[in-house]
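anyone else get weird line breaks when pasting these?? whatever heres mine. first is seq + tokens for prot A
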Amino acid sequence: MKRILLPLAAALLLTACAQNEKTAPKPVTGYSEPDLGWLFLEEGPYTLSTTVAAAPGPADLVLVTDLSLMAPEPDTVLTASVTVEDDGALEVPLGELAPGFYQLRLRDTLRWNIGVRPEELVSEPDAKDDFEEFWKQTFAELAEVPMEAEMTPLPEWSNDLRTGYEVRFRSFGGAVAGGILSVPNAPGKYPTVVQYMGYGAEPFYFDPSSAPDRIDFLVSVRDQGIFKAGQERWIDRGLASKETFYYRGAFCDAKRALDFLFSLDQVDPERVVAMGESQGGALTTVAAAWDDRLQAISIAVPFLGDYPDYARIVEWPVHEVWAAADGEGLDRATLMDMLTYFDMKNFAPQVTCPVIMAFGLQDPTCPPHTNFSIYNNLGSKEKQFVCIPTCGHAMWLEAAWPPVRDAFLSPWQ
């Protein structure tokens, strides 16, 4: 049997195969890669057969809901006395389970997540009545800011095929945003890939020879990426109101990046796609929601989805936001109302282009529930998800993901 190392706090070696006992009543739009049987896409009842790195003999097993992981006592769905065989084999009848995500706990030492029919998970948008008007007004104010774009050549990232540039432009409130750009030197119109960066991620530069017939643009929003200068925290900035919250400006930066890009003569407007992981997935979602010039998008382990349930599953980032708000004397209920203006599940219905989403079943940062609060609310007619069952949050380290993503986006490249 194949052994898989899960990226969880507890060291866990699992080889799993599981099967559903009924055929799903309708087709699903995603799959697991590889299929280890931890993601149940059909109707139950369910049985999980697995091999664990645990001492043989009797053991207690508990199944809890993900939405109670931050509670003093998680909600228990199942408790069972099981036996770990000499070779580590373990078979667990799970019975019928409601759509959603769960954590299995064996002897309080081994823990891993499973998912059940995630496309049936319900997390309704909770946008306020003035959500759309707020963002229309915000982007109208953005349009009044002169772009004043500057492109500084980067000789060390240029050759006879493409030229690299550091880009800077003005955005909402006069703040500076921009990024790293690589443009083919030969005349013509080119397909373009826009990449939005993760929270606090380090910028990188494009090999000018790697994609000589494509434009690449790595976007840095305000105070991050090439503008970070030692800063590490942004999510708790300006919490007093929707007008002052950090992401109001950052979301404008994501849109202004497209305005800059489409101002370039070399860009083929019919072949522009965007992608991002974590915060980059959120920025990509916002960009697609408010700019129909994007032909398709890829969002991996997307951030900023479903703040109320986010706080019930993992510690960060919502609890960090709460701590900052408490320190400023802000009311938590008022704060959560403010955050609805920046919740990806409220932007998702406005996204109509094709979307592919990847999620890590073991993600402790942007948990699967929050990913599907976005995915299940998308307005797109064409969408697909890919589960990497052993992945935590670091989707960028998963070799299985880029080929699937690139194949999905290839019609526009």
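and prot B, same format (seq, then tokens)
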Amino acid sequence: MSVGVEKADQQLQQWLQDNPEVARLQVAVCDLNGVMRGKLIPREQAAKLSGGVRMPLSVFGIDIWGEDVIGSEQVFETGDGDGICEFTGRGPLPLPWLDTPTALIPLWMLDEQKQDNTGDPRRALASVCAEYKAAGLTPVIATELEFYLFDSRLTDSGQPQPPSSPFTGKPTEGGALYSLDELEAYELFLRDVYESCEAAGIAADAAIAENGNGQFEINLLHLNDPLRAADDAILFKRLVKGLARKHGYRASFMAKPYGDRSGNGMHLHFSMLDSDGNNVFDDGGDFGTEVLKHAVAGCLAAAAQSTIIFAPHQNSYRRLRPNTHAPIAIAWGYENRTALVRIPGGSHKARRIEHRAAGADSNPYLVIAAVLGAALEGIQQKLQCAEPIEGDVYSANLESLPLSWQDAVTAFEAGDCMKSVFNPTLRQMLVACKQQEIDALATQVSEIEIRSYLDIV
């Protein structure tokens, strides 16, 4: 057992000793779709975690419906063998919405030879972090996550519907952007979210009511540990969905649950510290250093090939539409929320980059790895970016992100930067997973197609 694994195991055992009421443990890894996959074990079996939990290497490439991806090399070609899942050192996450006191133990995987050649997205981010360490840089990361609350019941046609306000008893309506009344109406739910975040060590910051029916955004504070920031984002999503059930709602991070309302984004803010703790993006003024501009150029150069990371599902492309505050054009600007990359204002000491492409339905490990990997390539190659865009980027004639699911997969396969960021196993698993999902949904005929064409053409 390595020193790091041994320390993590000791931390887990101490946590269990300090929390004797916990009777069961969920032990889980995060798959490529950002879904937690794992097992439920009794507390008495926790000692066995020291030797690692065995799960199939293919577990990371399971499709969105929980089915094996037949095209994945990790299924039949390798005999669907096991890997060894170890405690990450992050967690445990108490699950207060369950009747039996339970905690989630996050794991990550190595293969039988203890090598990192798996499809584990957390390992992929760890590899990018190692490159930053070798370069003498420390990324500082924060995420902003948007989500919708819904009534626990779907409509008769299977559609989501807004929750009824705890204050008025009426369905929540849109147009409540930055509404304090909306925050007060859902105060009990939001209180539980903040208390649960505190118990789990998730640094939750400001909450706002967004523009959709029952839509909220909660920001997570900046951390100088990208792995911890991604862990917190994944755990936060699980926590919000569980607490919503406790309060009689559904919560969803789906990119575009309503076609005519705002989508759910996951904006990523990042800066970088040198070995002396200085922000290498800070030039003492409003515009940032050349290093910042090289990082921006790297992000823009890799934007098209990393779109499948930011928009991983068919529904994701309903969010990437003009005039929606979701980016389409590959452009950057100062204080410009219509651009893919925005440089926020404020104190020069906090000069940072905001990457606005990812939906809340994306995998935080993969998003942070893709963005940081592209930024580092821009810095190391001293890439140059075009002039920043002022005003409405949507109306400018600029290169676009891939706006179809299939085109995004194709761009990812061809992209040299993504080949350097992600190992071949993960890339093959991700492409096979997305292709299986694309093919499966292509056979489904929607209700609107039947209504439009069955008796007309």
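btw re prot B: Residues 3-119 form a domain with the Ubiquitin-like (UB roll) fold (CATH 3.10.20.70). DSSP finds 13 helices and 14 strands in the chain.
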